[in-house]
């Protein structure tokens, strides 16, 4: 049985860790609330912008829009949106496993990867995947310009003909306790062709100019939404993970305290027996 000093040191160590996990939970909760507010603002804007574009497309010649060019899929690119840090449960590992499975099914030699976050970069670099770009250390001060920069690189990769399709793998924020890994096609844009246009409306400027202006903006907003969804999901996962760690630390402290009391009682009993034995020996 461990001596009293060892158990006391372990209790002290666990209490120190518990303070850290509790503080991390509170920090993650504050960051998650701010991220959730920004995410909930981006969702309706992204949806409305997509609806406007879809409403205009039936009345214009889609063949003149390179971002809607459907090609034979010979090479793909994946934008993998992960985190810079761990301590968020299975947040990173679940996403990376799904991304790797999709890439391997198509063929890793035919896939270019844009890594968002240190975890994604380190994971795919270690396994010798073809990483085109990696973006790290921007989450704390994330702005729309980050999304524009990442989106511009991915769009150029598609319009230049290097790849025929671009996927984005990210965590979708369902609620605080649930995040869902999603894989969506960013390019080429694919809208239903059976929707009727609006022949009775006049547009200034022309519909073609509107669509050519709105589609790049839509792609930037989509990338911004992916980043916001992922960041909110990361903070929610970290908050839940730290809450579980704090609870587990409390249970461990109870077990160690009980073990300490038993050891202390055994020590006292042993001392009493030694005193009684000594007294009897003197008689």
Mean pLDDT equals: 85
What proportion of the residues is helical, as a percent range?
55-70%
Estimated radius of gyration: 28 Å
For the secondary structure, the number of strands is 5
CATH top level class name of the domain at 42-238? Alpha Beta
The fraction of residues assigned to DSSP E strands is 5-15%
Molecular structure report:
Helix 1 (4-56) packs antiparallel against helix 5 (207-282) and helix 4 (144-159) crosses helix 5 (207-282). 60% of the residues lie in helices and 13% in strands. It is α/β, with parallel strands linked by helices and 283 residues long. The mean pLDDT is 85. It has a five-stranded mixed β-sheet with strand order 3-2-1-4-5, sandwiched between helices. It is elongated and about 115 Å long. The protein has helices spanning 4-56, 91-106, 118-126, 144-159, 207-282, and strands spanning 76-81, 111-116, 131-135, 165-175, 178-187. The chain has a domain at 42-238: Pyruvate Kinase, Chain: A, domain 1.
Task: Please write out the topology.
Layout: H1 4-56, E1 76-81, H2 91-106, E2 111-116, H3 118-126, E3 131-135, H4 144-159, E4 165-175, E5 178-187, H5 207-282
Parallel strand pairs: 1-2, 1-4, 2-3
Antiparallel strand pairs: 4-5
Helix pairs in contact: 1-5, 4-5
Task: Give a quick summary of the entry.
By secondary structure, the protein is α/β, with parallel strands linked by helices. The protein has a domain at 42-238: Pyruvate Kinase, Chain: A, domain 1. Helix content is 60%, strand content 13%.
């Amino acid at each position: 049985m461990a001596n009293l000093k060892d158990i006391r040191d372990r209790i002290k160590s666990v209490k120190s860790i518990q303070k850290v996990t509790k503080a991390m939970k509170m920090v993650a909760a504050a960051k998650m609330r701010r991220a959730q507010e920004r995410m909930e603002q981006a969702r309706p804007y992204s949806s409305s912008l997509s609806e406007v574009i879809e409403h205009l497309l039936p009345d214009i010649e889609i063949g003149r829009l390179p971002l809607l060019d459907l090609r034979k899929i010979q090479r793909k690119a994946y934008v993998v949106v992960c985190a810079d840090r761990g301590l968020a449960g299975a947040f990173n590992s679940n996403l990376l496993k799904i991304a790797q499975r999709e890439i391997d099914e198509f063929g890793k030699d035919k896939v270019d990867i844009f890594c968002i976050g240190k975890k994604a970069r380190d994971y795919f670099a270690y396994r010798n995947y073809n990483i085109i770009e990696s973006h790290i250390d921007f989450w704390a001060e994330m702005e729309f310009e980050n999304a524009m920069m990442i989106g511009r690189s991915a769009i150029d990769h598609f319009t230049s003909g290097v790849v025929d399709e671009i996927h984005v793998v990210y965590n979708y924020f369902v609620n605080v306790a649930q995040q869902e890994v999603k894989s969506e096609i960013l390019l080429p844009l694919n809208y239903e062709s059976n929707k009727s246009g609006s022949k009775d409306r006049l547009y200034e400027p022309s519909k073609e100019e509107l669509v050519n202006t709105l589609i790049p903006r839509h792609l930037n907003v989509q990338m911004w939404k992916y980043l916001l969804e992922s960041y909110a999901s990361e903070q929610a996962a970290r908050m839940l993970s730290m809450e579980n760690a704090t609870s587990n630390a409390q249970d461990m402290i109870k077990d160690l305290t009980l073990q300490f009391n038993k050891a202390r009682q055994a020590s006292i009993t042993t001392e009493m027996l030694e005193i009684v034995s000594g007294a009897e020996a003197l008689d």
